[in-house]
Design brief:
It holds the Pfam family adh_short_C2. Keywords: Oxidoreductase. This is SDR family NAD(P)-dependent oxidoreductase. InterPro entries: NAD(P)-bd_dom_sf, Sc_DH/Rdtase_CS, SDR_fam. Strands 3-2-1-4-5-6-7 form a 7-stranded parallel beta sheet, with helices on both faces. α2 links the parallel β2 and β3. The chain is globular. The protein has a single domain, classed as NAD(P)-binding Rossmann-like Domain (Rossmann fold), CATH 3.40.50. The chain is 48% helix and 15% strand. The protein starts with 8 loop residues before the first strand and ends in a 7-residue tail after the last strand. The protein is built from 8 helices and 7 strands. The chain has 253 residues and is α/β, with parallel strands linked by helices.
Length: 253
Amino acid sequence: MSGILSGKVALITGASSGIGAAAARVFAREGAAVVLTARRERELGDLVDELRGKGFEAVYSVADVTRPEDVDRAVSTAVREYGRLDVGFNNAGLGVERSPMHLLDDTVFDAVIDVNLRGVWHCMRRQIAQMLAGGGGSIVNTSSVGGLVATPVGAPYVVSKHAVIGLTKAAAAEYAGHNIRVNAIAPGTTRSEMIDAWFALRPEMEERLRAATPQGRTAEPEEVAEAAAWLASDRASFVTGATLPVDGGYTLV
């Protein structure tokens, strides 16, 4: 199947909803065989059935990215089913209760860092090892506009997403000579289960965020997934260590 990811094998984390599920559809449409991971098996199974029903190559592996053994199993699934791993899209993430730092318990900080940073670390280490064995590849990590600018009452999330960008740069510098590119995307406010639930509770926040975004709206998950697909593809062959804002201009102001 033709497309910018034609012939690639892509592992997508956090694929049961939101940007991850959109990426599964976009990557498959662009020609990739996709290996989908998340903690929710029913949603993964439904998505794989949907993709296979359209003639796409797709499998899933239930995985919690904070568990190295789960990540090992997901990478092994890609190799067992398709013979290699060309693309890693490390998208699994955890939000945080918006609260002043001094009122947050340490367990909140630890949980966010464990998923958003340590989870990317676990995935990248295993993806890179497989890509070294296979002659190269491309990794895209999901950071956030919160990784480029600071926002109040969300310190653990901001810390974790800044760190993802640092980890992306470090890996890009280390493996550029091995035909492995590593980049990040920094989405702005994007429609998802979590965001929709938050907006339902705080409708004024949706208007405030729209007003702060030059394009005047929130992103659809597919728009973010399209940017990730481009970075993952050979169309971005001379791009590594970059962080691409996908934010409607939010970080311009």
